[in-house]
Specification:
alpha/beta, 240 residues, globular, single chain
């Protein structure tokens, strides 16, 4: 693996956002994913002696882009986001489309458009590093709300995620695991993998650590929305 990943908690206690500091070990080039709050990001970068060259956005919502301009100015970084979302992302410099690739140094990212939570939401998928940054599309044991897209959009988007390798680790945009547990338990009360997942959640949160990353293989076994086999089943989960 050539990608070093640091998880940075932002808006702690309010929205519990996660931003991520990525560094390509071969080149030393760094990027920030979804900077929602400048202070903790700048502090972590300065402590580690890293100067991000890029800001990578998954979607335009303020709690993922609020610190774009401050981080951009502080580090002289370029903002990169989806072509379909370019008019709504602060400070955007470069755009990418579904299916395109982008390199952080020598670390390759594949862009996957996942409409549903918003239209134009993208995933940043680093296949060689088995890392997937899901923004507000996929959370631990739950998913993002449908603010702009339809249930069909979201089901299609989650199907794209389900098609990725099981050993891929996913990094969500918020710490929402606790919110997902009751519904997951109600859906699958006798699932031993889910019981292990809940135990891990409690251990990690008690230690002040993020629950993730979790492998997609485990998430597919425990997240009710990923277990849905068809649109009708998925819509029943949504209460539609």
């Amino acid at each position: 693996m050539s990608l070093d990943i640091e998880t940075i908690l932002c808006r702690a206690g309010a929205m519990d956002n996660y931003s991520y500091l990525l560094t390509d070990s071969a080149s030393g080039i760094s990027a920030i994913i979804d900077p929602s709050e400048a202070a903790p990001i700048i502090k972590r970068c300065d402590n580690l002696g890293r100067k991000p060259s890029y800001i990578l956005n998954t979607h335009h919502h303020f709690d993922h882009t609020d610190a774009n301009l401050e981080i951009k100015n502080y580090f002289q970084a370029k903002v990169i986001g989806a072509e379909a979302d370019k008019r709504r992302i602060p400070g955007i410099d470069e755009t990418l489309k579904d299916g395109e690739t982008w390199f952080l140094g020598k670390s390759k990212a594949e862009i996957i458009q996942v409409d549903g939570h918003t239209i134009g939401h993208i995933l940043w998928y680093f296949p060689d590093d088995k890392a997937l940054f899901t923004g507000d599309t996929l959370f631990n044991l739950c998913i993002g709300g449908l603010f702009e897209g339809t249930s069909k959009d979201m089901f299609t988007s989650l199907s794209k995620i389900k098609n990725l390798p099981d050993d891929t680790l996913f990094y969500p945009g918020h710490e929402y695991t606790i919110h997902g547990i009751p519904f997951a338990l109600n859906y699958s009360p006798n699932n031993p993998e889910l019981q292990n997942y809940i135990q891990l959640t409690q251990q990690r949160l008690n230690q002040g650590l993020p629950v993730g990353p979790i492998s997609l293989g485990i998430e597919k076994q425990c997240n009710p929305y990923l277990k849905a086999q068809n649109l009708s089943e998925f819509e029943n989960l949504l209460g539609q």
